[in-house]
Design goal:
The protein contains eight helices and no strands. By secondary structure, the chain is mainly alpha-helical. It has one domain. The chain is globular.
């Protein structure tokens, strides 16, 4: 029970940190990750909210994954999309006009911080190993169906997302390239620290009831 609660804390905390980073990249106006660019493009084209489109696209990916693998729907993946969508909308609302970078330096700083927080959030979330991310699952589905390695499978998913984001006038820019190149770097940088934190919590002595 204690470990399950701890995993859930890592899971939710990771999403909260990650969505804060996503909101910063959106506010930077320099471009976002391919997936987030698609969400913003759909928002600008059809309305609703960016977080709502996270849920809709996440559901679409879950349906695709289930059909491709001929398996039941992964309901925990839907929960991930739901919490992520709520987190994005919450942070965009909280930030509001507090962060509206105008100069190139301010925009670049916002972008770098955003990608850094995304990397930190993902590294925290990975410690939970709690619920799959629909996009990452799609990458693994393509890997399984085609035999292509994970890197190429992810690149294919990203390429499709970039094409769709471009079609809906999503914010494709230097930030998209930066996100693609450095999100993994930040994840790799933070992983030893989050893994150590997770290990420390697992080794904490349990209280014994009198």
């Amino acid at each position: 029970m204690h470990q399950s609660r701890q995993r859930f804390i890592f899971y939710v905390s990771g999403i909260i940190i990650m969505t804060f980073g996503i909101a910063l990249t959106i506010r930077s106006l320099m471009g976002t990750s391919p997936f987030d660019a698609l969400l913003v493009g759909l928002f600008q084209t059809f309305g609703l909210t960016i977080g709502s489109w996270e849920i809709v696209v996440g559901l679409s990916l879950v349906l695709f994954n289930a059909a491709a693998q001929r398996r039941r729907l992964e309901y925990f993946a839907l929960m991930t999309s739901l919490i992520t969508g709520m987190g994005i909308d919450l942070w965009l609302f909280v930030l509001g006009d507090l962060i509206s970078p105008v100069t190139l330096f301010a925009q670049a700083s916002c972008l770098i911080l955003g990608v850094g927080f995304v990397g930190l959030g993902v590294s925290v979330n990975l410690q939970a190993n709690f619920a799959p991310n629909p996009m990452d699952r799609s990458m693994l589905v393509i890997n399984e169906l085609t035999g292509l390695n994970v890197a190429i499978s992810r690149a294919l998913v990203s390429l499709v997302l970039v094409i769709l984001a471009f079609a809906f006038s999503g914010p494709i820019g230097i930030g998209t390239i930066f996100s693609a190149l450095f999100t993994g770097v930040f994840i790799n940088f933070f992983m030893p620290y989050t893994a150590r934190l997770n290990k420390d919590k697992n080794t904490e002595p349990q209280s014994i009831a009198p």
